[in-house]
Malonyl-[acyl-carrier protein] O-methyltransferase
Amino acid sequence: MIDKSLLKKRFNKAAATYDEYANVQKKMGDALINLLQVNSKPISILEIGCGTGYVTEKLLRLFPQSTITAVDLAPEMIAMARSRLNSNRVTFICEDVEQLRLDTTYNLIISNATFQWLNDVSQTLLRLHEVLRPGGNLLFTTFGEKTFYELHTVYEQACQGITNKRMGQRFFTKSALKELCDAYDHLCISEAYYVEHFPTVYEFFHSVRKVGATNSNTGSYMQSPSLFRQVIALYEKQFGDYGYIPATYHTFICSMKKGEKKNGNRNKNKLEATRA
């Protein structure tokens, strides 16, 4: 379960440094935008998790007659987006999308690197589908279960079976994501891997903090200094190469189009039951 107050605090703190360090998130956003075509007709767009406005800016250029409702949990992120865009075609809403009242309809609903922060993806998808206009599209990117597999591998080794807790957040498996989305027509799920390289494990941890993506789960996990030293030593020994260590990002792009719903029951289980 994601602690939303903690999540908001961390993204507020990271707003000023997000664009400098969010290299993978930008690549995910670019991949999402590349699925769209220029449209000069006036359309209504809902963007979930607009952050500093990187994707929002591209949407404004791609859809020059569009209006965009841009939602984000963190007010400091929205402040950065406002200063970046300065457009009267964007309406910003500072709110948790899981609590947001949706009282209008949209031609396009889009979200980059945000769905992993939702506690009930199934219910959110249902609500979004309801406000999607016929023929409209819903697209989002999120992270897969192999994200940071290097870190999780050495963490499990360092724990030596004394805990079943994971270091940080759990992400989606492809099968779980497909099950969540399979009730909707024209579903397409693709995946991609990105690898970043850092001089040290500390630099990797630093980059994660600077985008606000550190662990925001409720509850506790093992954090002893000796364990972290062992994790870092194992990481550098097993994965270090020519003075750098890799960090793998496993990502999904999901797209669906509003149409008749398939027969069968939707999976309405909580998010914890659908992650790796």
User: Anything to note?
Assistant: Strands lie at 44-48, 67-72, 90-94, 106-111, 132-143, 188-198, 245-257. Residues 15 and 77 are 5 Å apart (CA to CA). The domain at 4-274 is CATH 3.40.50.150 (Rossmann fold). The two ends are 14 Å apart (CA to CA).
